[in-house]
Design a protein that fits this description.
The complex is a heterodimer. Chain A is an alpha/beta fold. Chain A folds into two domains: 2-40; 53-132, Cupredoxins -  blue copper proteins (Immunoglobulin-like, Sandwich). Helices cover 25% and strands 31% of the residues of chain A. In chain A, the strands form two sheets. Chain A has a four-stranded mixed β-sheet. In chain A, strands 3-8-7-5 form a four-stranded mixed β-sheet, with no helix packed on it. By secondary structure, chain B is an alpha/beta fold. Chain B has a single domain, classed as 4-Layer Sandwich (Purple Acid Phosphatase, chain A, domain 2), CATH 3.60.21.10. Chain B has seven helices and 14 strands. In chain B, helix 6 (184-194) links the parallel strand 8 (163-167) and strand 9. In chain B, helix 3 (73-85) packs parallel to helix 4 (106-116). Chain B is globular, with a radius of gyration of 18 Å. In chain B, 51% of the residues are buried. The chains are: A alpha/beta, B alpha/beta. The A-B interface holds A 1-2, 4-5, 8-9, 12-13, 15-16, 19, 59-62, 82-85, 87, 89, 91, 98-99, 101-102, 117-119, 121-127 and B 23-25, 67-69, 102-104, 129-130, 133, 135, 174-179, 216-219, 269-270, 272-279, 281-283, 286, 289. The complex binds copper (II) ion. Copper (II) ion is lined by residues 86, 120, 122-123, 126 of chain A.
């Protein structure tokens, strides 16, 4: 049985290393997020994107990109791609999603400039930031 | 050392014991004497020799979960209940350390209650974070499990055979960037609850998220857990039972014994050994080797305490 488990773990451990490599998040964001492709490729998540819709994916108990810069009026859509439910709650509770099960989404439109930190109320070590310019 | 030390099973060190428990699914009898843990591999035969008062712990049933890691979490909960019914010594009662349901839905609570009723045991619950994600943020749970004795979000204490049991809630009002959270109201209640108790009173504390820091990178700990442990420090025998991490981890610190239980639904990876703490997929035929329940025995008037973990495999 240990032999059955070990290869899977070794594989998983390899993924941890990759996932933690700097720049990987930006690369992921570039691959999946048309709206912020330019920002991600430049490796500068702080560059503002056009108003419209931007996506934040939830994978492996993490918001990707963890920090997203958007223009005022942009709608952000969070998509949960984990096997476990998550939520999106702004620190000051100015907005709050319902529980999102697998593949469920939450959208919020940002009309005021500023920096907002949000987290998952089920797994509060999951945090993210939206910078509205 | 202890009366359990003379069985024929090989004595293994803690590291080996942990590996056995997690990966081989072997039952391990764990005794404590003067704060020194001794592990020996056990069979059901010598487990049954443990005399005196015992109770069961079940955890993380996630009824409603149907993803590939376990397409039918209700079926494995049912297996756990069958396991309970087959025990040669009937436990005094059962505690469930939360995540009874996966999404706090009425049907999930109903299904779980229906199956758990099959144990025929009086049962005590605390909520996991999955049990308080209804619209009312915990109203569904309290509506079912709250009693005249539960305070706040559902914490309480009770006494059984001279042992003081405390059920705590550390899954409410979680803070951005934080871990599990008890909150000042609950800590104040805990201080009052313990006030005036003799230091010789054995204490069992149970809560969903580990009260000690197991792996903060995955949120496996409680922000203000240390405050609760400080209140418990004067007591000569403290056992802390948690769930949440779907695997067995244990440690002894002074007079405190910490132990986490397996899930009845799906395993989670060892800390840091996967990209996330999400459900760990194992071959379907092996799933039940990763699931299980825990029984805890007290020998009256004596120090040793035994924690026995059993898997759901080989019913
Ligand atoms: Cu989450």
């Amino acid at each position: 049985m240990r032999n059955d488990v070990k290869p899977a773990l070794r594989k998983a451990a390899g993924r941890v290393g990759q996932w933690r490599r700097p720049g990987m998040q930006a690369a992921l964001a570039g691959a999946v997020l048309a709206v912020i492709t330019l920002a991600a490729r430049a490796g500068d998540a702080k560059a503002p994107a056009d108003a419209g819709v931007a996506e934040v994916h939830i994978d492996n108990f993490a918001f990707t990109p963890a920090e997203l810069s958007i223009a005022k009026g942009t709608t952000v859509k969070w998509i949960n791609r984990d096997d476990i439910p998550h939520t999106v709650v702004e620190k000051g509770i100015t907005f709050k999603s319902k529980t999102m099960d697998t593949d469920e989404t939450f959208t919020h439109t940002f009309d005021t400039a500023g920096e907002l930190t949000y987290f998952c109320s089920l797994h509060p070590h999951m945090t993210g930031k939206i910078i509205v310019k | 050392m202890t009366k359990n030390n003379d069985n024929d099973g090989p004595v293994v060190d803690r590291r080996q014991a942990l590996e056995c428990m997690i990966w081989a699914g072997t039952g391990v009898l764990w005794t404590m004497s003067g704060g020194v843990p001794v592990s020996s591999l056990i069979t059901d035969a010598n487990a049954a020799e443990t005399k005196g008062f015992s109770f069961l712990q079940m955890s993380d049933s996630h009824v409603g979960f149907s993803k590939p890691a376990n397409p039918d979490a209700l079926a494995t909960l049912n297996d756990a209940v069958e396991k309970v019914k087959s025990l040669s010594t009937k436990p005094a009662f059962m505690i469930h350390t939360g995540d009874i349901t996966h999404l706090s839905k009425d049907k999930e609570f109903d299904d779980a209650a229906q199956v758990l009723k099959g144990t025929g045991l009086q049962s005590f619950y605390v909520p996991g974070e999955h049990d308080v994600i209804d619209e009312g943020v915990g109203k569904a749970y309290l509506g079912r499990y709250g009693t005249k004795d539960t305070k706040g979000a559902g914490w309480y204490s009770f006494d059984q055979n001279g042992v003081h049991f405390i059920g705590l809630v550390n899954v409410m009002n979680l803070k951005a960037g934080g871990l599990g959270y008890l909150g000042d109201e609950q800590l104040t209640w805990l201080a009052t609850d313990l006030a005036g108790k003799a230091a010789s009173t054995p204490i069992v504390v149970f809560a969903h998220v580990p009260l000690w820091t197991v792996y903060p990178e995955w949120g496996w700990g409680t922000d203000d857990g240390a405050k609760a442990l400080t209140l418990l420090k004067p007591f000569g025998s403290v056992t802390v039972l948690n769930g949440h991490i779907h695997q067995i981890v244990q440690k002894v610190e002074g007079n405190m014994t910490f132990h986490t239980a397996r899930s009845t639904a799906f395993p989670q990876p060892e800390p840091g050994k996967a990209p996330s703490p999400g459900p760990m997929k194992v071959p379907a035929e092996d799933l039940r080797k990763f699931l299980g329940l825990t029984s805890v025995s007290f020998v009256q008037g004596d120090q040793p305490l035994a924690i026995i973990d059993q898997t759901l495999a080989a019913l």
